[in-house]
Specification:
mainly alpha; binds fe (ii) ion; Hypothetical protein af1432; 17 helices; 0% strand; 286 residues
């Protein structure tokens, strides 16, 4: 399939309301400048399952609060508006990952995605990036969302891409370009734009395999996702379509001022961090 055919198919995908309605509402609140904590609380609280699961994440070992947080309003005070918004989004999007068949196990992609999300947190910590890193976390969770879209809507071509990647021992994004004319990073970028997720997210995700081409204003965050992805691939956390070790892009290391030794140190902490993030991984088990 050539690029124009892929684009024609994608245009159709954009017409499909793929984002769950509750997630769309969370986004609406999040994207509006006038939204308050009360608005966010109202949207989340309207959905009992979303409330329960969001609170479970708030109380997970990942955040390590000494006492139990029982209300969304309380979570917003403690964790902040953005953090709770992103947790609610994580809960809403994880259902896309809850499917396994003989060709592809999306649950392994979820594990990979949670791995990348927590690794972005470790990188941010290493770099002493001030403020909240919630956007980097959700970018980690969503960075391979294009794969889900392919699996769902361009299924035959996706299966063919998986085969090509395996046979030629090349990264999935290269195989996709051969088969589909574009890769899951570009597809992810398009879908996030059509879901109206914050602009930076789609920019970051669009170049997660090509940090050298990242937008100037998202160079750092694209490099963080790229390196987090690299670490998770080295550590074989989950599966995102291939088992090839990605090429080391010096640009990404330079953009962050990280050395190879730093990467080793971060990689060492990932297992411990993933253990703490068990509740995130288990989101799709029930
Ligand atoms: Fe990817
Ligand atoms: Fe990935």
């Amino acid at each position: 399939m050539g690029l124009s055919e892929t684009l024609a198919k994608l245009r159709k995908i954009e017409e499909i309301p793929t984002l769950p309605s509750v997630a769309a509402k969370v986004l609406e609140v999040a994207n509006s400048e006038n939204s308050t904590a009360t608005d966010l609380n109202r949207v989340i609280s309207q959905d009992a399952a979303l409330t329960t699961k969001t609170l479970k994440l708030v109380n997970s070992a990942y955040y390590g609060f000494p006492r139990t947080v029982t209300k969304i309003t309380e979570a917003i005070v403690i964790l902040g508006f953005n953090a709770v918004k992103n947790l609610a989004l994580s809960v809403s999007v994880c259902e896309f990952f809850n499917k396994a068949d003989d060709n592809f196990d999306r649950r392994k992609l979820w594990l990979h995605s949670v791995g990348v999300a927590v690794t972005t947190g470790l990188i941010a910590k290493k770099l002493n990036i001030p403020g909240d890193n919630e956007e980097a976390f959700i970018a980690g969770l969503l960075h391979d969302i294009g794969i889900i879209i392919e699996d769902q809507f361009l299924h035959d071509e996706f299966i063919e891409s998986l085969k090509v990647a395996k046979e030629k021992d090349i990264p999935i994004e290269h195989a996709e370009k051969e088969v589909l004319g574009m890769d899951h990073a570009s597809i992810g970028k398009k879908i996030l734009q059509s879901w109206k997720l914050p602009g930076n997210l789609s920019k970051i995700i669009g170049f997660h395999h090509e940090p050298q081409y990242a937008y100037a204003d998202t160079k750092r965050d694209t490099a963080i996702i790229y390196i987090a992805d690299l670490i998770c691939k080295l550590k074989k956390i989950g599966f995102d379509g291939d088992t090839v070790i990605p090429k080391l892009r010096v640009e990404a290391f330079k953009a962050l001022g990280l050395k190879k030794e730093d990467i080793k140190e971060i990689a060492k902490d990932v297992d411990e961090e993933l253990k703490k993030a068990e509740d995130f991984i288990n989101l799709i088990e029930n």
